[in-house]
Please model this.
Amino acid sequence: MHGIRTMRTNIVIDDQLMERALAASGYRTKREAVEEGLRLLVRLKEQERIRAARGKLPWDGDLEAMRRDDE
Model:
């Protein structure tokens, strides 16, 4: 793997859940399914963090001027 750090681990995973994940994803290996699941979890949690900031960040601008297409 080119520059990617890996961690060897042994985990117990529900067989039926893994079968469903492989079937739904089209991945061929358990590793591919687990890694994609981890990427999805990270992405969702990052999106939650961003959504939590909605309406809490200061903004100084003129929305009406931005909406005009004068230029």
User: Anything to note?
Assistant: The longest helix spans residues 30-52. Residues 8 and 27 are 20 Å apart (CA to CA).
